[in-house]
């Protein structure tokens, strides 16, 4: 393999640049040319493709977002879009592709693979919802952003003796809520994977109040319900002054943590190795601190699950 491509797709996540940098540098180290495909699968269809050099990824390892830009591209879900994409890859002489993104982007990579085009998926999403890896690129940074925000909210919550509901990202996956809730000692954590009992939440808040607690924090993953609605219900049921903060897109941005930079570097480099070993249709990941790879079709047929033990622990520590 003498020429490969790299693109970032779907929701951006901090550390995507570090992954792209690793792909570019690792490939060039092995005398392989690298082409950047801009704006995700849209760029593949429109031929928005440019050669990347060693210097193209200089000064990017610490930057959030993605220098290749990202996009959502409904056209690529259709066979016609995929055909156009493959035509462009062939036109540029690109023999293998690395896709950095979430599970939607992996479905596109799976399609390319099934059309016989060697593609490797690198998990980049703040949701941490990709099977076959303990962590996705960007999760650690987003988690730290969330806990920094909650620490600040906690200060004002204590001063005013208020209850705070904090809504974090996670439409289908509660990892960000669960980890930030544990890291911040939240009273309750509401995640899409588990039913919640409002009476139990209210009882826990009242118990804390009776013990003399000055503030309470409830974390809600967006997929578990609207923070605003849940805040209203809590205020009505407890009579405690309750405020709601929806953290929103600040969770996607910022300089990646050391963990995400190192993870992205290791995964990006492994993706290139796999292509050079003649393997396509794989996803890379980290499991028990080892870099691993899996069949992309298999990974996409498995559903991400929450760590039950951690969820149970969060309940036990917030009695
Ligand atoms: P993420 O990768 O963050 O999960 P999306 O779900 O929006 O983000 O997916 C990103 C892009 O991947 C989509 O805009 C589309 O171009 C492509 N994609 C998603 N699902 C499929 C699919 N089933 N087949 C082909 N391409 C897909």
Q: What does this 3D model show about the protein?
A:
The protein is 43% helix and 18% strand. With 319 residues, it is α/β, with parallel strands linked by helices. It has 2 domains: 3-138 and 256-300, Rossmann fold; 140-252, 3-Layer(aba) Sandwich (Rossmann fold), CATH 3.40.50. Strands 3-2-1-4-5-10-11 form a 7-stranded mixed beta sheet, with helices on both faces. Strands 7-8-6-9 form a 4-stranded parallel beta sheet, with helices on both faces. Strand 10 (282-287) and strand 11 (290-295) form a beta hairpin. The structure holds adenosine-5'-diphosphate. Residues 9-11, 41, 72-73, 76-77, 101-105, 107-108, 111, 125 line the site of adenosine-5'-diphosphate. Mg(2+) binds at residue 103. Its cofactor is Mg(2+). Catalyzes the phosphorylation of D-fructose 6-phosphate to fructose 1,6-bisphosphate by ATP, the first committing step of glycolysis.
